[in-house]
From TrEMBL:
Gene Ontology biological process terms, A to Z: gibberellin biosynthetic process
Protein name: Ent-kaur-16-ene synthase
Source species: Pyrus ussuriensis x Pyrus communis
Keyword Magnesium part of the UniProt annotation: yes
Cofactor annotation: Mg(2+)
Pfam families named in the record: Terpene_syn_C_2 (PF19086), Terpene_synth (PF01397)
């Protein structure tokens, strides 16, 4: 059943449509037939082997499964099955793997692990090679990608928005009937990346996979002795965390803590790969995280000294939010070489907070006008909001929206940091409407976070990922997206700078080292 987006009740129109589109003449679905064919060695005498052989792949196997292929050869004497089995024996001798080949899934899983562990920047060329090859194979309709739900979903997630998703990836594969939680989790992660209004397939996948994962998670919690601790933690986190609110350092630290060095998956039997759950990745990730964190700690100490040296700590009206301001910078701009960008971001964020407090609490009209001369656009908009509040007047929607983005005071934080993230910005790029549009979207997301966050966030992500016709460097566009994620963390549950979750996030990124047990 496809659950309703607003309740646990079935989403009946979608259920009926899907059943009508996928049900075969005998009342079964294609996925169910595929599942029965996949376990042929267990019910060989009941099988229609002519139907089973429809699932034979180009390499001669059935589902890349040696056991299923061996059963098929025993009953059909198919020459391609025999050739596949002989290649296996030539390569592995008597130790035949559960699944072969597994290289495409293993390579994609390796890329996904490198990204989640925060060490992908050390392997950019290797990752680009895997992504380019996967994109080429996707366009060719390669069966090694499209015949396995987990591989298909992972490839889509890493390639999106370059490719479109097909729901046949899971529903018409045997994976749906094996209750493969790993495959469903990959589909759920992929279904979170919705940036176009016409991606209804992803919305349906999100409804279905979230319902499936919640049920499986309940079963895992009831049976604590099953070998599913790591996957249960991953499922729980994925269900609770919106895609647009996952900050880099927090996600990385969590991934390191819960990284599973045992890459075994259990379907009809267990299998694993040396490239999945590699201990060397974990050791490198811990070392890299702790090195970055030591740099972040020194920078944060410098920020605190800077506040004291400039007597900003003496301003009675100003909140002392150095930790949160630095967190907003280091959460995603974490590499050591981006120190200048972090310090620019953090200092301007702190100054923006001081100015905001000045307007809210202690600013006279004369002082406001003088300050406006230094921070033109930002403070002009703040003055307008201050006037509305002082006069107890209610602006029209047009007046409010025209002023809202600028008054949120992200300009002094983000715009100076653009010059420190890597690409050299020309006057053409700085004055381009695309850059202004990115800034407007980001600011509007912040100001209207609780009202229209879904639409604006999706539009911001679309513009950030857009490559065709874009003149703004990707590193600069990522800066706008990173701050949008920071704002979701700040305002997701609490009111900005308050709450235990915020202090916990500060400690995770700046304070607590990772120690392997």
């Amino acid at each position: 059943m496809v659950p309703s987006p607003n309740s646990q009740d079935p989403f009946f129109p979608e259920c009926v449509n899907w059943l009508l589109c996928n049900q075969l003449h005998d009342g079964n679905s294609e996925g169910w037939r595929a599942f029965l064919a996949y376990i042929s060695e267990g019910n060989a005498e009941l099988q229609d082997w002519q139907t089973v052989m429809k699932y034979q792949r180009k390499n001669g196997s059935l589902f890349n499964s040696p056991s299923t292929t061996a059963a098929a050869f025993t009953h059909t004497k198919n020459a391609d099955c025999l050739q596949y089995l002989r290649r296996l024996l030539d390569k592995f001798g008597n130790a035949v793997p559960t699944i072969y080949p597994l290289d495409k899934y293993a390579r994609l899983s390796m890329v996904s692990s490198l990204e989640s562990l925060g060490i992908d920047r050390h392997f950019r060329d290797e990752i680009r090679s895997v992504i380019d090859e996967t994109y080429r194979l996707w366009l060719q309709g390669d069966e090694e990608i499209f015949s396995d739900a987990a591989t298909c979903a992972m490839a889509f997630r890493l390639l999106h928005p370059l490719v479109k998703f097909s729901e046949d990836c899971f529903f018409n594969s045997y994976g749906g009937y094996l209750k493969d939680v790993s495959a469903a989790l990959e589909l759920f992660k992929a279904s979170k990346i919705i940036i176009h209004p016409d991606e209804s397939i992803l919305e349906k996948q999100n409804y279905w996979t979230s319902h499936f994962l919640k049920e499986e998670l309940s079963n895992m919690l009831i049976q604590p002795h099953r070998p599913n601790k790591h996957i249960a933690l991953e499922v729980d986190h994925a269900l609770k965390s919106p895609y647009h609110a996952n900050l880099g350092r927090l996600s990385t630290k969590r991934a390191i803590k819960h990284y599973n060095t045992d890459g075994t998956r259990i379907l009809k039997s267990s299998y694993s790969s040396l490239n999945i759950g590699h201990e060397d990745f974990l050791e490198l990730a811990v070392e890299d995280y702790n090195i970055c964190q030591s740099i972040h700690r020194k920078e944060f100490n410098h920020l605190e000294r800077w506040v004291v040296e400039h007597r900003l700590d003496k301003l009675k009206f100003a909140r002392q939010k150095q930790a949160y301001c630095y967190l907003s910078a280091a959460a995603d701009l974490f590499p050591p070489e981006l120190s200048d960008a972090r310090m620019s971001w953090a200092k301007n964020a702190f100054l923006t907070t001081v100015v905001d407090d000045f307007f809210d609490i202690d600013g006279s009209e004369e002082e406001l006008i003088n300050l406006i001369q230094m921070w033109l656009d930002c403070l002009n908009s703040m003055l307008k909001e201050a006037e509305w509040s002082r006069n107890k007047s209610v602006p029209t929607m047009d007046e409010y929206m025209a002023n809202a983005g600028t008054s949120f005071a992200l300009g002094p934080i983000v715009l100076p940091a653009l010059y420190f993230v890597g690409p050299k910005l020309s006057e053409e790029v700085v004055g381009n409407s695309e850059l202004q549009y990115l800034f407007t979207l980001m600011s509007t997301c912040g100001r209207l976070l609780n009202d229209v966050q879904s639409f604006k966030t999706r539009e911001l992500l679309r513009v950030v990922l857009l490559e065709k016709g874009s003149v703004v460097p990707r590193a600069c566009k990522d800066l706008f997206w990173n701050l949008n994620k920071v704002m979701h963390l700040f305002y997701w549950k609490d009111d900005g700078y308050v709450g235990n979750e915020m202090m916990k996030a500060v400690n995770e990124v700046i304070g607590e080292l990772i120690v392997l047990q």
